[in-house]
Amino acid sequence: MITFFLALLALIVGYMFYGKFVEHVFGPTNHRTPALSKTDGVDFIPLPLWKIFMIQFLNIAGTGPIFGAIMGAKFGPSAYLWIVLGCIFAGATHDYLSGMLSVRNGGIGLPDIIGKYLGNRTKTIMLVFSILLLVMVGAVFVYSPAIIMGGIVGNVEIWIAVIFVYYVIATMMPIDRIIGIIYPLFAFALLFMAAAMFVGLLIKMPDIPEIWEGIGNRNPKMGPIVPILFITIACGAISGFHATQSPLMARCMKHEKLGRPIFYGSMITEGIVALVWATVASYFFYGGGALELGAETSASAPQIVNIVSKNWLGTLGGILAIMGVVAAPITSGDTALRSARLIIADFIHLKQKPIRNRLLICIPLFIVTTLILWFNIADEDGFNVIWNYFGWANQTLSIFTLWALTVYLAQQQKPFYITLIPALFMTFVCSTFLLISPIAFGMGNLISYGIGGCILIVAISWFFVWYRKDKAAS
Question: Structure pTM?
Answer without folding.
Answer: 0.89
